[in-house]
Amino acid sequence: MYKSRMEESKKTPEKPATALRRGWTTGACATAAAKSAVAALLGEEFADPVEITLPGGQKPKFALAHERKGKDFAEAGIIKDAGDDPDVTHGAMIMVRISPGKNGSGISFTAGNGVGTITKPGLPIDVGEAAINPVPRQMIAGVIKETCARHGKRADMVVTVSVPDGEKISEKTWNPRLGILGGISILGTSGIVIPYSCSAWIHSIQKGIDVARAMGITHVVGVVGRNSETGVKKYLDLPEQAFIDMGDFAGGMLKYLRKNPVPRTSIAGGFAKMCKLANGAMDLHSARSRVDMEWLAGLLKEAGADEKTLELALGANTAHEILQAGTKAGTNLAALIAKRAENRARAILKDTRTSVNIIIVDRDQRIIADSSKAK
């Protein structure tokens, strides 16, 4: 029996009414698919919609996009809906196949097509295992045990999770750098994706640091974006896993390092982003923090700029314009910002025995300041 209802599945599952629509993690989708599939394997109809209970007690319902049953397996698929969060897995099919295992084997997990395999230490799953995180494993195991108990059966099942196009999607994630090869990870702790909370990004930062530590890397570099990463890679001779794509979450990275330190940390980014950090911002996103232009002009004065340059700075529209004015006036404003940002980073790290420096990268990927070398 085979049935596909891709268009039908695009209906949004029930969820709380908010200004920005919430979505569901890959782990929640896999749990719902597993619940429907194991019920079908044990002789019931595929549940559609299928309701699950999340760790926080919420009870969302998911429409099936795929169902198939064979002699010794049943599989179901759900389209991942990330709500209004910019998630690369939004729209992906999360498929789960359930088949009987050997007596007494319990529940085991395997990576199907498009789901990664762990190849490096430091992640919450052992090397060689399918990249299905602990909470999704617990949730999936829970619905399988519940259904098996209802039928008076032992919960000896093999769970295979697959994501068509998952390997291609993973190229847009951190997985290759973290040593998760062959596809995406099945993630989630709450089951809910909160729009623009960027919890997944912060989770990736933390896992990146964990992998670096497990590999014995003693110097990690948090980079704001691709431009700064390219520039700083030419500047620092470090392994790939040393570079952490922290995005705008400088505070999140530094706070995690405070509890999970490495001997040396660098933060690399453009001038405007480092201005925000220097002025106390921990989230460097343009929608959540802005460069204080008067404050920056005041620093330009501190750097020794003349009155004409200060007038130009006060009338500037961007931090880059102020940097250019300061450079023409012979000041080293970038070095001053780097040092101020370093002081801010040290304040977040508190008494952690971690040396830290700030590296500012210009638009041409050149290093224009390094706080460790600034006077």
Quick synopsis:
The protein has 375 residues and is α/β, with parallel strands linked by helices. Helix content is 36%, strand content 19%.
List the helices and strands and how they pair.
Elements: E1 2-4, H1 6-9, E2 23-24, H2 26-41, E3 50-51, E4 61-62, E5 66-69, E6 74-79, E7 93-100, E8 107-111, E9 114-115, E10 117-118, H3 134-150, E11 157-162, H4 166-170, H5 175-178, E12 180-181, E13 183-184, E14 192-193, H6 199-214, E15 219-223, H7 226-235, E16 243-245, H8 250-259, E17 264-269, H9 271-278, H10 293-302, H11 307-314, H12 319-328, H13 333-349, E18 355-361, E19 367-370
Overview of the structural elements:
It is a single chain. By secondary structure, the chain is α/β, with parallel strands linked by helices. It folds into two domains: 2-193, CbiD-like (2-Layer Sandwich); 199-370, Beta-carbonic Anhydrase, Chain A, CATH 3.40.1050. Helices cover 36% and strands 19% of the residues. It has 13 helices and 19 strands. It has helices at residues 6-9, 26-41, 134-150, 166-170, 175-178, 199-214, 226-235, 250-259, 271-278, 293-302, 307-314, 319-328, 333-349, and strands at residues 2-4, 23-24, 50-51, 61-62, 66-69, 74-79, 93-100, 107-111, 114-115, 117-118, 157-162, 180-181, 183-184, 192-193, 219-223, 243-245, 264-269, 355-361, 367-370. The strands form six sheets. It has a six-stranded mixed beta sheet with strand order 1-5-6-7-11-8. Strands 16-15-17-18-19 form a five-stranded mixed beta sheet, with helices on both faces. Helix 9 (271-278) crosses helix 13 (333-349), helix 10 runs antiparallel to helix 11 (307-314) and helix 11 packs antiparallel against helix 12. The longest helix has 17 residues, at 134-150. The model is unreliable at 1-18 (pLDDT under 50).
